[in-house]
Amino acid sequence: MPDFASLLDALKDEIIDLAASHFNDVREEAITDGEAFLERTKDDLQRWTRLLEDGELSKQEFESLVRGKKDLAEMNALKQAGLAAAEANQFRDALLDRVVNTTVQVLL
User: Fold this and answer.
1) What is the pLDDT of residue 1?
2) 2: pLDDT confidence band, cut at 50, 70 and 90?
3) CA angle, corner 59, sides to 55 and 61, nearest 5?
């Protein structure tokens, strides 16, 4: 497994790509919110990726754990920038998808 810092860097790159594909005028706010989510869940993600790599968690279990943290993806910067809650929630859901898919690709 690549070191966890490398995985976090890959996830940050995914956040930048995701923000660019979803928003023009609030791109920086989306990046801020995505990186805040990574910071809030970093310890859990590190533990879960280790368990996933060791075969102690299935991909489905890992995905369920990540999705269980969606409340920590608050999207405050996007909401403060005036983005509708539905759009912020769509970005949040896409963010969770990217976290799961990128982690699985890097590990497996």
Assistant:
1) 53
2) low
3) 90
Question: Which residues fall within 8 angstroms of residue 87, CB to CB, at 6 or more apart?
Answer: 78
Q: How far apart are CA 58 and CA 89, in angstroms?
A: 26
What is the tens place of the pLDDT at every residue in 24-70? 889 999 999 999 999 999 999 999 999 999 999 999 999 999 999 99
CA distance 103 to 98: 8
Other C-beta atoms lying within 10 Å of the C-beta of residue 108? 9
**Residue 46 token pair:** 């590190």
Strand, coil or helix: what is 108?
Answer: coil
Task: Give 43's Cβ-side CA count (13 Å radius).
Answer: 1
Cα within 13 Å of Cα(27), Cβ side: 11
